[in-house]
């Protein structure tokens, strides 16, 4: 009898084990469900960063992050970071057991800067991101460039002066430049600052390649004396040549009116992209009307908005309607769906005129309880707003993410679907009308680390309108976000995005 019971028990266990294996097989081919383990400060719990991280040194399989997860349903997973400092981390595989599991995310990319950088870690479409800090040290490529200056040790050769003139009392603008010849022997960094002579100095810095033939220096300050020629030594790495510059005579301020009979006609030229410094191709033209009694110097500027401004100076030597040029200065901070409007200050002139400039790049923007927020403060190499598909090659489980990097708390936004759903162009998705297993969610993390969530309350649905997923991801969004059980709410309106698809 005992033997019979043992055989029956063994047979029953075999059946149960077979059933479990079959169930396990099916589960492992489905999407896993779980959460990242997160500390109270939103750092990833138990994160382990391995490898040496240096600026300009490509990441390898030795550069990885281990993060802990709490799995409630076994299956496939994809865990990844946003792109920061020119690189990102990604790990995919299968969780075969529930409970605590560790996932390894391997680094990809080439770091472009040094210092502590914060990466946001995301687990598929599951809510609850966490953050990992990584220190990037200087690399072997931080050496200075080796080059010779044209004409050294005498007067610089190949000098090309920018279009803005030099007169006493007339402030320098981005149009006061001087390009000089250079022969680069070894690529590297350089930084040149001349001494202040007659109230101004010249500066230039950056990275030189062996293909570069010019260094462009930009003047700053306000000249003091006129009718003089000054000599500015240009020095770097033991090399020196001299820049000779003649200042015109003192000139009285002019009087003029912005625009012409056709009105204000300010027009911007060049491409303006978030994170990319402007250069000599970025400028504005505007008409002015100068009376016969208004000859003299002018200095026209704009206010500084979104990281850049425009200014121009010169001398009117003849009356009538004429065109002046204002040169851009700075680095655009935020891309957006609408142009940035600048006010033009005529200085000694009269009249009002606005300038419209569109900033290109990846962006997520929205009005949060009346406050406009942008989630794209990176650059073209290190974008911080992006979209991604999770799942099959077809457009499934869309996730749209953005950071601001305005502070150490990194305010961020994420709009995503909690499960696989086919995404199509020109389609509006409303959280309250989707099946429960196809939930649409938006999470917003503010400066204090509070996470507001939208899409869970059918009475206050979150709306996502996909305009296109062809090449880029564009659309709009709106809804109510809640925190602390609804004790705090944020009304999001005028949401819009135009972002690239991350790897």
Compact summary:
With 503 residues, this protein is mainly β.
Structural account:
The protein is mainly beta and 503 residues long. It has four domains: 23-140, Immunoglobulin-like; 146-247, Immunoglobulin-like (Sandwich); 257-357, Immunoglobulin-like (Sandwich); 362-503, no CATH class. It contains one helix and 35 strands. The protein has one helix at 2-28, and strands at 33-36, 48-50, 64-73, 75-81, 87-95, 99-109, 115-123, 130-136, 146-149, 160-161, 177-186, 188-193, 200-208, 214-221, 228-236, 239-247, 257-258, 267-269, 283-290, 296-302, 308-316, 320-330, 340-345, 354-357, 363-368, 371-374, 385-389, 398-403, 412-417, 427-430, 440-445, 451-454, 463-468, 473-483, 488-501. The strands form five sheets. Strands 25, 26, 27, 28, 29, 30, 31, 32, 33, 34 and 35 form an eleven-stranded mixed sheet that branches. Strands 1, 2, 3, 4, 5, 6, 7 and 8 form an eight-stranded antiparallel sheet that branches. Strands 17, 18, 19, 20, 21, 22, 23 and 24 form an eight-stranded antiparallel sheet that branches. A hairpin with an 8-residue loop joins strand 27 (385-389) and strand 28 (398-403). 37% of the residues are buried. Residues 1-26 have low confidence and may be disordered.
Poorly predicted ranges = 1-26
Beta-sheet strand percentage? over 45%
Supply the number of structural domains. Answer: 4
Mean pLDDT: 84
Structural class comes to mainly beta
Q: Mind telling me the C-alpha Rg?
A: 30 Å
Number of helical runs? Answer: 1
- How much helix is in the residues? under 10%
Total beta-strand segments: 35
Distance between the termini: 64 Å
Largest sheet: 11 strands, mixed
Shape: flat
């Amino acid at each position: 009898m005992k033997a019979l019971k043992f055989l029956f028990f063994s047979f029953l266990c075999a059946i149960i084990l077979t059933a479990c294996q079959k169930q396990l097989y099916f589960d492992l081919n489905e999407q896993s469900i779980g959460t990242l383990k997160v500390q109270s400060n939103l750092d990833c719990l138990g994160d382990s960063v391995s490898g040496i991280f240096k600026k300009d040194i490509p990441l390898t399989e030795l550069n990885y992050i281990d993060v802990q997860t709490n799995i409630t349903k076994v299956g496939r997973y994809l865990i990844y970071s946003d792109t920061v400092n020119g690189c990102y981390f990604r790990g995919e595989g299968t969780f075969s057991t529930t409970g605590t599991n560790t996932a390894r995310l391997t680094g990809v990319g080439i770091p472009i800067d040094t210092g502590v950088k914060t990466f946001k870690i995301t687990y598929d479409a599951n809510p609850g991101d966490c953050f990992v800090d990584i220190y990037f040290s200087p690399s072997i490529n931080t050496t200075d460039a080796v080059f010779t200056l044209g004409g050294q040790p005498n007067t610089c050769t190949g000098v090309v002066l920018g279009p803005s003139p030099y007169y006493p009392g007339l402030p320098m603008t981005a149009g006061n430049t001087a390009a000089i010849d250079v022969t680069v022997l070894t690529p590297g960094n350089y930084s040149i600052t001349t001494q202040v002579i007659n109230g101004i100095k010249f500066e230039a810095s950056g990275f030189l390649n062996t293909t570069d033939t010019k260094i462009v220096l930009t003047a700053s300050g306000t000249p003091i004396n006129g009718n003089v020629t000054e000599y500015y030594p240009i020095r770097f790495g033991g090399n020196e040549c001299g820049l000779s510059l003649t200042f015109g005579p003192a000139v009285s301020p002019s009087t003029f009116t912005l625009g012409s009979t056709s009105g204000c006609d300010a027009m911007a030229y060049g491409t303006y992209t978030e994170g990319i410094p402007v250069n000599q191709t970025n400028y504005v033209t505007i008409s002015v009307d100068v009376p016969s009694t208004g000859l003299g110097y002018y200095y026209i500027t704009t206010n500084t908005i979104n990281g850049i401004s425009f200014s121009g100076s010169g001398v009117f030597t003849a009356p009538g309607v004429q065109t002046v040029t204002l040169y851009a200065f700075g680095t655009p901070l935020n891309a957006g769906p609408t142009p940035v409007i600048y006010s033009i200050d005529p200085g000694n002139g009269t009249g009002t005129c606005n300038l419209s400039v569109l900033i290109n790049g990846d962006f997520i923007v929205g009005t949060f309880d009346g406050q406009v927020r942008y989630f794209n403060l990176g650059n073209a190499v290190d974008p911080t707003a992006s979209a991604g598909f999770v799942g099959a090659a077809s457009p499934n489980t869309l996730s749209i993410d953005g950071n601001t990097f305005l502070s150490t708390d990194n305010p961020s936004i994420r709009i995503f679907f909690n499960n696989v759903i086919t995404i199509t162009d020109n389609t509006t998705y409303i959280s309250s009308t989707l099946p429960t297993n196809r939930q649409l969610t938006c999470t917003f993390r503010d400066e204090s680390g509070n996470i507001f969530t939208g899409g869970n309350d059918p009475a206050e649905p979150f709306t996502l309108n996909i305009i296109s997923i062809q090449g880029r991801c564009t659309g709009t969004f709106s809804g109510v976000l809640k925190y602390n059980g609804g004790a705090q709410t944020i009304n999001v309106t005028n949401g819009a995005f135009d972002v690239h698809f991350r790897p």
